[in-house]
Amino acid sequence: AQSVTQLGSHVSVSEGALVLLRCNYSSSVPPYLFWYVQYPNQGLQLLLKYTTGATLVKGINGFEAEFKKSETSFHLTKPSAHMSDAAEYFCAVRSGPGNTPLVFGKGTRLSVIA
Amino acid sequence: DAGVIQSPRHEVTEMGQEVTLRCKPISGHDYLFWYRQTMMRGLELLIYFNNNVPIDDSGMPEDRFSAKMPNASFSTLKIQPSEPRDSAVYFCASKLGVTDTQYFGPGTRLTVL
User: Fold this and answer.
1) How far apart are CA B24 and CA A45, in angstroms?
2) Of A13, A70, A89, B112, whose CB has the highest number of CB atoms within 10 Å?
3) C-alpha–C-alpha distance, residues A57 and A49, integer Å
């Protein structure tokens, strides 16, 4: 079965510092991988996704993620954190081949310190 | 586009009462998902529909939970009777079948006293 592990339930960074949120996956099929962001009292929004092709994926708000098959990882990064990046971030993997639901990680709460 | 619409946004009820959560997916989307989010268990898929037909309800925790989708623009999640452990945020999401991106509603925060 497909699964996602997010390392660290809470990450705190200073404003302007590098953001690195870790995600490792397990998948028996070629993985489709996603990062979603949830701002307080809102639903989840798609940040970026990897399906096929280029392994470095750029998303909204300056975030990017790199698919590394050898490491079964899909870590999310942003060079310089902004206060507005404070939110909960979820990594997800498609649960199977074809049109199947996503399996979400437990989430990582990002705090940005001024 | 109005996005996925959920109602109510907040619901407080007493144990044993029936609770109905409502969702209107994005027009034209043919998949609809119901999720539950708690601190302990994270985001769990409860059930999903394709073209109004339930495809997988293995995530529905108990027989107290039921979901329907009478037409392409409306779905309900019902809990009867409700229990304090059902307290959570319930999200509805929809997507267009040929794409991978799910669009989430703002959620319903349910508190069962």
Assistant:
1) 17
2) A89
3) 7
Q: How distant, in Å, are the alpha carbons of A20, A32, B17 from that of A58?
A: 14, 15, 46
CA distance A5 to A23: 6
Residue with tokens 């995530």: B59
Is residue B30 scored above 90 in pLDDT? Answer: yes
**How close is the nearest chain B Cα to the Cα of A45, in Å?**
7
Please judge whether A46 and B101 are an interchain contact, meaning their C-beta atoms are less than 8 angstroms apart. yes
N residues, chain A: 114
Give the tens place of pLDDT for each residue, B63-98: 999 999 999 999 999 999 999 999 999 999 999 987
The residue type at A5: T
Number of CB pairs, chain A paired with chain B, less than 8 A apart: 43
Q: Which residue's structure tokens are 């109004």?
A: B52
Report strand pairing: A19-26 vs A3-7: antiparallel
Contacts of A49 in chain B (CB under 8 A): 100-101
From the list A1, A63, A67, the residue with the least C-alpha distance to A32 is A67
Question: What b/e sequence results for B62-90 when a residue is b if at least 16 CB atoms lie within 10 Å of its CB, and e otherwise?
Answer: eeebebebeebbebebebeebeeebbbbb
